[in-house]
Amino acid sequence: MADHVYRVVELVGSSETGLEDAINSAIDKAAKTVRHMRWFQVVETRGHIENNKVAHYQVTLKVGFSVEDENVSLAP
Question: CA nearest 68: which of 36, 22, 46, 39?
């Protein structure tokens, strides 16, 4: 079994509808430029309140992606 080495980036996603949508928003956007994403960890959740109601959900994620064996670039 090969050793696994990961690079970690921090992302913040937001949504007006919920935490899951905020997570998916961050991952979907990152997938356009970051290859080989393997896992995520929610490290913080926040929200914005307007008129005594939740207006926005905001989630900070750590996302791990595999580092390639050849031509290693640590830029996300």
Answer: 36
User: Cα(39)–Cα(1) distance, rounded to whole angstroms?
Assistant: 19
Q: Is the CA virtual torsion 35, 38, 44, 45 positive or negative?
A: positive
16-72 pLDDT, tens per residue? 999 999 999 999 999 999 989 999 999 999 999 999 999 999 999 999 999 876 655
CA distance 10 to 8: 7
Instruction: Kindly state the tokens that stand for 46.
Output: 């926040």
| Residues recorded for the chain | 76
Torsion of CA 36, 7, 67, 32, to 10 degrees: 30
Q: Among candidates 58, 71, 67, 53, which has minimal Cα distance to 26?
A: 58
